Batch of 3 targets.
Target 1
Amino acid sequence: MSEIVIENLYKSFDTKDGKVEALKNVNLSIESGDIYGIIGMSGAGKSTLVRCINFLEVPTKGRVLINGKSLGDYTSRELRKQREDIGMIFQHFNLLMQKNVLENVCFPLYIQGKSKKDARKRAKELLDIVGLGDRTGAFPAQLSGGQKQRVAIARALASDPKILLCDEATSALDPQTTSSILALLKDINQRFNITIVIITHQMSVVREICSHVAIVKGGEVAEQGTVEDIFTHPKTAVARELLKNDVGDDGEEKRGTTAGGKEIIKSGEKIRIVFSENSAFEPVIANLILNFNEPVNILKADTKNVGGVAKGEMVLEFAPDCTKNKEMKQYLLDRGLEIEEVSEHVD
Ligand SMILES: Nc1ncnc2c1ncn2[C@@H]1O[C@H](COP(=O)(O)OP(=O)(O)OP(=O)(O)O)[C@@H](O)[C@H]1O
């Protein structure tokens, strides 16, 4: 049984301008111990979806089941109890600015009824876990963004949750700090077997730590699957768009390079090649050009670290007058590369 099941979920809001359908027939299953990404552009419905998972938003229709039990069937008291199993962190940390780091983490422990002594002991342990054991007396204003998010993570862990929801938790952070927070989340996931649901608009976040992902567009799930599958075989335009915006680990997307020593070629057949494992670094394209004595235009090339494995993609364009497209594609297939036709514009 999946730990989190979202069944035929709808959520609409009545506004003065009419009804907004934020979620439409969303179906998802998230397994225990998974790190699950929910990605989409702004306004896609991600925050509404994640808020439905702990019933901060009550769905208009459909069900959310945690370990087989529908949250809609709980009394408000049972729901409060269930929510202790679901921690949450946010983009803007939501810390108590007048309280120091230790007291911020103690706060939920006091609410649980812990004594001051016990709460402080536990809060200190949690701050050690997030690497802030030496900053207990600091106030939030004295901390960097990454440190504030670490405090928020420690606070979220105070109720020993089984699930941690992260709503754009790294969106306010620079790339290096983002990586360190993602590494911390992965560590927490593995050490404490906490299921993590990450809401983000950045594909780089998904590929760095998620094992599964759902792509949300216009309140609907456009595509879902393993991260590896979505990266290597994106089926929808929105998935391709999000991938296109994801800058590779080398920090640059290489576009518009001309291979083959000829002028940039316009509007020939375009194909997308997917590299995996070590093939990304082999001189396949150079050999292709030498073999067929035909130029190809490299419209885009990216290598990325997907869950620790080097992956890459390239979009190639054949010369408009090239007559060897078929053989050249076969050459690439024979070398174990996956190729697909690209119909949309590549910029
Ligand atoms: N409380 C609300 N009242 C009215 N409309 C809302 C409310 N919350 C969300 N919406 C609308 O629902 C849609 C989805 O919003 P949501 O915040 O879930 O998207 P999102 O993908 O998280 O976007 P972003 O990344 O910009 O935060 C939007 O059209 C938004 O305006």
Target 2
Amino acid sequence: MTHDTFDRPDIEDDEHTRDDDTPPGGEVIPFPRETAVDPDAEIDHDQDDDTDGETDQDDDTEVRVPVDPPGRSRPTWSESVRGEQRRDVIPAWLRSREALREQSAWVLDHYKHVFAFHAVRTPVYAGTLALRSPLGAARLVGGALRWVSDADGRPVRAEAVRKADAAEYLKLAKHRDGKVRLRGTILAAAVLAAGVLLTALLLAGPTWALVVTLLGVVAGLGWAGAPEDRPVIGPAVVKAQAEKLSSGMVLRALGALGIAEINKAVAKGWGPRAFVAPITRDGPGWRADIDLPYGVTAVDIIERRDRLASGLRRPMGCVWPEPAYDQHAGRLVLWVGDQDMSQAKPAVWPLAASGSVSLFDPIPYATDQRGRVVLMSLMYANMLIGAMPGMGKTFALRIALLAAALDTTAELHVWELKGTGDLSPLEQVAHAYGSGADDDTIAGTMDSIRYVHTELERRAKVISGLPRDVCPENKVTPELAAKKRLRLHPLVLAVDECQELFTHEKFGKEADTKLTAIIKRGRALGIILLLATQRPDKDSLPTAISANVGIRFCLKVMGQTENDMILGTSSYKNGLRATTFTLKDRGIGYLVGAGPEASTGRSFYVDNPGAETVCTRARTARIAAGTLTGQAAGESADTDRTPVHDLLADILAVVEPTEAKVWNEIVVDRLAELRPDVYGPWATLDSQAKPAQLTTALKPFGVAVGQVWGTPVDGGKGANRRGITRDDITAAVTKRDGNRAAD
Ligand SMILES: Nc1ncnc2c1ncn2[C@@H]1O[C@H](COP(=O)(O)OP(=O)(O)OP(=O)(O)O)[C@@H](O)[C@H]1O
């Protein structure tokens, strides 16, 4: 069955809606009269046993109640027109700068190729034409003689001779003589003109004109001498195998899926009405918008993608059925590409050679089936990438990290727990970096996690201390991130193969608790968590983490559980099935949370040398901006792991609000307990240097230290010693945060 046309279903849609043989106005259901008159009366249940299925019109025990409301069965013009979806006035490829650029680049590239192809073969073409020119000359002379001698009329004259029809023959011979005379004259004139022109050129014309003419003559003769099946110039491109997508092909493929409802609908004539818009060219492929029969959903088709591809006689990687997210569940958008997505040349990452990034703006992350760039905004989000081994997780994580590296204000903590060094180019820009599945690397990862976790508290305090007009939404904004003293710059923590961390005997639980807190609270505070895993089960990826993540990229996985762990609960049911990707679909996955709708995309491909180049550029930019810190700046890993501390906040943390005044030495001991790596050395000083150390440290904050009354911790005699007043510390914090806000 083929259908080359489509009908708009909204026109005369009443017929369509009557596929189920329902009469207009709705079915009439008999109600027992007793029920209407006397609700307490006993209902005669025998009438339900009316086995012939027909309603007796004359039965005076029943009244008829229409099920559908009275009124027009067809929608009014206004109702049907208002319900219509408007098609783009200007095609999508003309509206998007990216798409326009892609289209123009393609046209330019195509003609560049055609030109280069023929230019390289010019000597071959010239030689072939020269070799064929004698044959061409012979054909030309033969053709001219046949024309002059009116060879075409010979069979007719021969027939007159055969019939011995003298009158007819004489008439034909006379006609031919006239023709031959005229044509002979024309040919002689043409030969003479050509001879004169050639002689004139030979004697008086410029050499180039003579050469061009001779070449032209030889080329022309060579062209005329070419055998019909072997033209001189071959095509520079081989036409794509892909056939134009027709409604017939689509319907045939849908009909072959083994869905009973479709088969029933096809038998009733469902078909051309299925297409809600003409099948159009959309990027490097065809798009069909289809209303499936009642009861069939787009998901029913998506889960049979392999069979659909077979029905369309296309490779799986060309066939991309999707739900129309803004429409009903039975609307299918089928995009059929000219080329298998996995075979297409990966697009070049727009930031590979130049450009910088602000993580507050969307970054180019992937390309969809149609070659359009898929953007992703990392700020205020976290990302989870999952796939079975070897499908492109690390590459996908690396793109996000390369973008973060190109934001000079972003602080990167990169931990790759596979140990292959796939993220090693980032070492030159990362504040903390480690590669390996060993305990030391995992301990290093934990240090970064603890640091980021501490940052949560600090950042939350800074933000809550800012005046409302400076921070109206209680979250980091580009303006606040730019204020260096607030230290609210983007903080990116990435863990590749994070299952190694979560399943670690010693650190697994702590990692779970701290990362859950980070994922829940970090978004507003400028903290971005990026996780990649090849084992998305509940032991390897805590559910609290998989449930709270914002952006999800799921490459090929084996089963529904992994699919839903990465993409979110019910994703499989809703048609997002990363199980349908093939092993060839490396780098291709479903991206959820990056835009209003889920999309299929292939992450940009930047290999290790390419990543080195990007990171070298990022490092230069960071040095210029003065933001190269931590390991990248040559600080040792130990120093690097030293948590950033806030002395005033730390004092407030160790001195209870009920303690108005505390001796310096007691404060120092408590601080050393809170942060041994920072304040530990202070606590080891002698009894005079210890309080003096705190006095010196507090001087830059303008906090004066005086004699305060107190008692030793071991319960000795009370005395006056150097100490702080808690209110002075609180006042200093208020003053400092106020100043920062005003910066
Ligand atoms: N976007 C992409 N486009 C094309 N090929 C890709 C893309 N991403 C990854 N690949 C290919 O897939 C291969 C595996 O990628 P990658 O190392 O990222 O996989 P992985 O899932 O991290 O593997 P493993 O689980 O072993 O760590 C790469 O060598 C690369 O050739």
Target 3
Amino acid sequence: MYYKKNKKLVVKNVFKVFGEEPKKALKMLQNGKSKEEIFKKTGMTIGVQDASFEIYEGEIFVIMGLSGSGKSTLVRLLNRLIEPTSGKIYIDETDVTNLNDKDLIEIRRKKISMVFQSFALMPHMNILDNVSFGLELSGVDKKSRYEAALDALKQVGLENYGLSYPDELSGGMQQRVGLARALANNPDIMLMDEAFSALDPLIRTEMQDELLQLQNSAQRTIVFISHDLDEAIRIGDRIAIMQNGEISQIGTPEEIINNPANDYIKSFFKGVDVTSVLTASHIAKKVRSTIINKEGTGIKAALQYISDFDDDYAYFIEKSGKYIGILTLESLKEQKRVGGTIHDAIIDESPINENLQISEFISDIAEHKYPTAVINEEGKYKGTISKSRLLKVFDEGVDYE
Ligand SMILES: Nc1ncnc2c1ncn2[C@@H]1O[C@H](COP(=O)(O)OP(=O)(O)OP(=O)(O)O)[C@@H](O)[C@H]1O
């Protein structure tokens, strides 16, 4: 998804120590003690260690990691539901770590909302009142808060349920109400902590679509915690992977899949549905058998070239890199026989664009006899994808060569 690269949230060297003497624990860390040693000696836990990153306006930034890796702690540091032990956090250049209580409350009301996995709707209040409750606490008048609540309910497709009560709604609908409650504040930033994890898979996918749709109409900055890789890939513009309190990699799903920083991350991505993540450019390979169209490159030269490579086909390319087509021994010989040109020998198998996802070009490759050429927007040759290459990616995921 497109987003402007304005920094919305900046986190600089943030640490969180849980325990009695956090400064002492930080000192031990500086002196090279491991988290395990510190915990053993002092009982203190390093929840987040030296986190530094930036989140851009309008992006969905997913924080992923195993249970206990520090995701919830990190997200709660952003709005200071948890106080950082050291480090700085900026929202729109405001230093959040320095705000007094009053300003902090103001920022939480106006700029940053949070959606949890399980949140309590008030059973005795109807949906409209539940959604506008936060605004009521902020002193917004009745008319304005009902308008905002109704608008938020509309955004999640529940505009007709304002007068219903929570126990009349399904789990998925209740989660939508939770989302509407966060939207009613019209926040710049939404923090979503495993917001969809309690939902059954179908409804969960529906909610992910809903979130993406909402993002299309109003570009909010969303920080989304998930332990589910498919979800992270589906909705994340970028993903940060946490491991034992530290961020071990940040990147787009493609970047991480293609270049995992370590074995832990690699193991995360094993078995992921690559067809919806990887594009042709990610799996295309350059092959040796390319013939450059120089002056005088005719059928004879092409035949010679292909036999030299002990092959029966080659990719024909302009000097500029522009892709022309596939030449085969058979088609060249035929044109030689009938007196045609090298261009007449090009066989009818179209190249695919490098930006297509695997799921979009699978059938092309299946229908082609020869490995399919991959071209960029300008028509330049970028490599080829064979059926066997595709099968390998399916079987083994990406090969990290
Ligand atoms: N209030 C607390 N006091 C002491 N330790 C804590 C506290 N909150 C979190 N921790 C510890 O900090 C570490 C990170 O926990 P956190 O809840 O942030 O992880 P998580 O990745 O969100 O896990 P999960 O997916 O299970 O929610 C864990 O070792 C946890 O035990």
